[in-house]
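Quick log. Single chain, no ligands specified.
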Amino acid sequence: MSEAGPAAGTASELVEHTGELELRVRGPSLGAVYAEALRALADELVDRRGEGPRERRAVDLSASGPDTLLADLLNEAIFRSETEGFVADDLEVRELAGGRLRGALVGRLHDEARPVVKAATYHRLQARRDGDGWVAGVVLDV
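-> predicted structure:
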């Protein structure tokens, strides 16, 4: 993924529920969907993306498939935000196959990161091909 912004054809939508937010993401590739989901999560964690230097945190995840990998990736980003103040808003993919993701979370340190999102859940979790791209959905516990 590029640090310049979202890939062409990506989009995200947050749908509010009591105690939860449902994140729906669409993109041209699975990597673009994961990066867009991180951007949407970052928007919930901080009011602005920040001015500090961009940093990277290695990520190496294995899951049963692309849907559970999405939840695991978001939970990793939530954990980093809570423990380090690191808010990831992009993803560099080195390897993405089956349920394996290797790469780096890209973002900034934030003093004002809010612990609004507790976890990405498996409730209504999906990640699937749709035409020429991918769609995904995950419920965030808030």
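The chain has a mean pLDDT of 89.
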